[in-house]
Design brief:
homodimer; steroid biosynthesis (chains A, B); 8 helices; 407 residues; Diphosphomevalonate decarboxylase (chains A, B); 16 strands; Alpha-Beta Plaits; nucleotide-binding (chains A, B); steroid metabolism (chains A, B)
């Protein structure tokens, strides 16, 4: 008999309206709604294989080839238990012929195709891939929204990686969290023109983890409550409308304002939390200058790029595809690259991105030219789809039920 | 006949509750009240000599030996005109024998004893010294509160330099601004134990001027209004109570929170405004760690230092005098000094501050050791008194009515 096994991949997402603060730390219920863009799995993804077997002694999980401890009552344990519960309730209890997979232990192997050193949060794509692979293994008749309730309990922002395109995480109001799930605002096919440039920024300082940092903000910031009650609800409506209208200028305005406000409430925390450093600030100065030029009436009067920063110094710059060559040239000029720019969309041809260039009218003095390595890598990607079920050829578990691939 | 001439000096002040935003840009009426500590003129001061003479053709002003243009309707012009008006109304109109100095032109020479390169705002001490010297010249029977109404129209925070000690600037509510003036919360003699260490931080980036920056925050920050209405009023009460009770722990807690919140609303501005850089952040990390150790029950459970940052990267660290040696040792350890520490209070003796040291239990990893020059100077001072009238020997104008000293 073929083993009960499934492999899926899930995407990274980067928020435009930021999640910062939990009203329930166990269920991971947020203090405000958030909204993100799902990035293309062709470039960044977590892949997870799950296998259920009556011969397995206990649930085990390997991350990038290294076994992780599944702590009882911890986040991974909760997700696996919830998926087994759904298997029992939605499949086994209604179809007596279905194998009792919910009673079997599982082995799970997960890989990220981006290095941890890239500073990209892997918990969102990781928990989304875990949830999606167990859903495939268990043949659950669940829409992504239902699965997002479980991924959320692994890592809040993971719930948004269950959908492609433009995804809202509604904060909800129920103590149970049953209304705190992801919904798709628009699929990637609605606005495939949205590209992203991830600028991986070197940092010597170890940052505050988002889990502890956000609760310190909840406890000590006098500005956060105002943000939650009076700012985010309107921004969620406004950016959803901008996405539906494919209005990049408005999308960019809100995205940048919300990134800055998230970092403002982090700074309004005691002790204060800083995620951006001087390189991050310089990228902001450069993008703001690029938009200042773009906003001139003779240049069309609309913003052409939007930066956003999560809980770290890396920038993600969203822009319509047509602007990406200018943006990459600009970034490369101020932040010389040690390695040649990997050009997945073939913007630069054989000559490569070179030493960069600025658009006409740009005030070059808004930032200095940094030493090579200040931005240690650039990843060009775009909006993409939700989790994918992969063929058995891509399985990460061997016939012996152990990882077939090491990190 | 002796010339009509007066020389005064005025102090620098550094706010604990920050002024950021005007409700009237012409009268310089703030959106919120603020509170500062006046620093000792023995270390930092502006000195101004004013002379009225019927032979002078027009009002003239020299700053550090360089003549400045007194623009009609500008801030200096407004202050001089207001002082002449007070001379007429309060002196000449009530005493017919008083010389009609209000009809004479004035020559004014002003010097700062700290270099512009130190990055310390000289506008507060400068306009306070201007106002105080004209008040002495005109023999105005005015308390500092009345003079503060005029200094405020030169530079908002100048109104707080008319008093020594701990000084509030009440925002007021009248459109005329007549209730927007400084009041002394407590004189320097109430709590002379408060010392200050100014850490002059190198910065490659030219910052946004506070005049333009604060109005951009008023126009674009969604958090500022909450700060104005719901945060600052309570903090003004709380820090005043802490000062009256000489409660440094509470004073420090509020001072640091308000510095961080000021920079948070600057960041919540579009485009965002950054005044602190990576060195500023590192100083915060070091002071926070120093307080973390101090807050341990076995160490007394109270904060021992408070950082605050104005519209620039420089830190000012307030602390009781007894902690200053530890603090200077700590700062010197992380930020090696190119020049020997000037030790005005003789804390270190002949050996000097050396290469620094940390208190027991301090986690040294909270910051890296920076290259010499990252903090390019340290100034140790303390709370001090209000403007002083100086003798004619300290006059900055020669007998010919022109500056006797060049920069």
């Amino acid at each position: 008999m073929a083993p009960y096994i499934a492999t899926t991949s899930a995407p990274v997402n980067i928020a435009c309206i930021k999640y910062w603060g939990k009203r329930d730390t166990k269920l991971i219920l947020p203090t405000n709604s958030s909204l993100s863009v799902t990035l293309d799995q062709d470039h960044l993804r977590s892949t997870t294989t799950s296998r259920a077997d009556s011969a397995f002694e206990k649930d085990r999980l390997w991350l990038n080839g290294v076994e992780e401890d599944i702590k009882p009552g911890g986040r991974m344990s909760t997700c696996i238990a919830e998926m087994k519960r759904l298997r029992k309730e939605l499949v086994e209890d209604v179809d007596a012929s279905a194998p009792a997979l919910s009673t079997f232990a599982v082995h799970i192997a997960s890989y990220n195709n981006f290095p941890t050193a890239a500073g990209l949060a892997s918990s969102a794509s990781g928990f989304a891939a875990l949830t999606a692979s167990l859903a495939a293994l268990y043949a659950l008749p669940c829409p992504p929204t239902a699965l997002s309730l479980i991924a959320r309990q692994g890592s809040g922002s993971a719930c948004r990686s269950l959908y492609g395109g433009f995804v809202a995480w509604n904060a909800g109001t129920l103590p149970s969290g049953l209304d705190s799930h992801a919904v798709q605002v628009a699929p990637e096919t609605h606005w495939p023109d949205i590209h992203a440039l991830i600028c991986v920024v070197s940092d010597t300082k170890k940052g505050t983890s988002s889990t502890s940092g956000m609760q310190r903000t909840v406890e000590t910031s006098s500005l956060l409550q105002h943000r939650i009650k009076n700012v985010v609800p309107q921004r969620m409506k406004d950016i959803s409308a901008a996405i539906l209208a494919r209005d990049f200028d408005r999308f960019a305005e809100i995205t940048m304002a919300d990134s800055n406000q998230f970092h403002a409430v982090a700074l309004d925390t005691s002790p204060p939390i800083f995620y951006m450093n001087d390189v991050s600030r310089a990228i902001i100065a450069v993008v703001e200058e690029y938009n200042r030029v773009a906003l001139l009436p003779e240049n069309g009067g609309k913003r052409k790029a939007a930066y956003t920063y999560d809980a770290g110094p890396n920038a993600v710059i969203y822009a319509p595809a047509a602007n990406m060559k200018e943006i990459i040239s600009m970034i490369v000029r101020y932040f010389p690259q040690q390695d040649a720019f990997k050009d997945p969309f073939g913007l630069f041809g054989a000559a490569g991105a070179g030493t960069g260039a600025l658009v006409s009218g740009f005030n070059a003095d808004v930032a200095k030219i940094w030493e090579a390595g200040a931005v240690k890598g650039l990843i060009h990607t775009r909006v993409g789809g939700g989790p994918r079920v992969l063929s058995s050829e891509e399985s990460l578990l061997g016939e012996n039920g152990l990882p077939s691939k090491t990190a």
